[in-house]
Amino acid sequence: DAGVIQSPRHEVTEMGQEVTLRCKPISGHNSLFWYRQTMMRGLELLIYFNNNVPIDDSGMPEDRFSAKMPNASFSTLKIQPSEPRDSAVYFCASSLDPTRRGLDTEAFFGQGTRLTVV
Amino acid sequence: QKEVEQNSGPLSVPEGAIASLNCTYSDRVSQSFFWYRQYSGKSPELIMSIYSNGDKEDGRFTAQLNKASQYVSLLIRDSQPSDSATYLCAVNGGFQKLVFGTGTRLLVSP
Fold first, then answer.
1. Which position among A4, A9, A111, B101 has the lowest Cβ density within 10 Å, counted as fewest Cβ atoms?
2. pLDDT tens across B9-55, in order?
3. Which candidate from B51, B90, B97 shows the least CB-CB separation from A48?
4. Other CB atoms within 10 A of residue B44 CB
C-alpha cells in the first residue's frame, strides 16, 4: 500500500490567491482527517469525514477554508483567499471506522503539504 | 484548559537511559489513547496505542494508562540517539476525533 498521498508537498503562494491541497487516503479506509501543524499551536484537527460525509468541521478556522470529499479516494482542502497566517504544514490522515475495528482509531498520516503564503 | 497537555521539553536523556514522557487529558469519556513519534520535517507515525488501564509493552516501549487520574505515559527503555524526536500524545475525543497534545521533544545524547 502506498499510504496516504498528499499533493503538492510544497506550495508557495501570494496572499489573496486560492490554494488547493489534495489527499488520497489509504484504500479501504473510510475516515479522513485534515490537520494543520504550526510551532505555536501544534497539530490541530480542521475537519474530518466518515464515509465521505463531513462529521465535524468545528476546527475550520474561518469561512476562507473549505473541504470536500467527492469520493472515497480523494479529498481537497481549499483556502480562498489565502493569508500569511495560513502558513503551516497541512496533514491528511486516514483510518478505519471503529465500528469495524472496535476502539481502534489508528490514524495514518500523509507526508504533509508545507504551505507558505507571502 | 487544553484537552491534551504535554510538557514541551526538551527532555534530555543519555543513551541507554529510560525516557519518561507524560500526558494528561481532560475528557473523562475518552476511550483510546495513542503515542505518535514525529521526526523533524516528517509526518507523525504511530508507535503505541492503549485502551485499558495498566501497562502495555512493545519492545523498548511501554505505554501506561490511568483513567482515574486521566494520565497517559510512554516509557522508552535503553534510549538511542535515533529515538530523538517529538512525541505526540493523542486521545480519541469521540466519533474518531483524535485530539493531539503539542508534543514533547526528546533528545538522546550519545
1. A9
2. 899 999 999 999 999 999 887 788 999 999 999 999 999 999 889 99
3. B97
4. 27
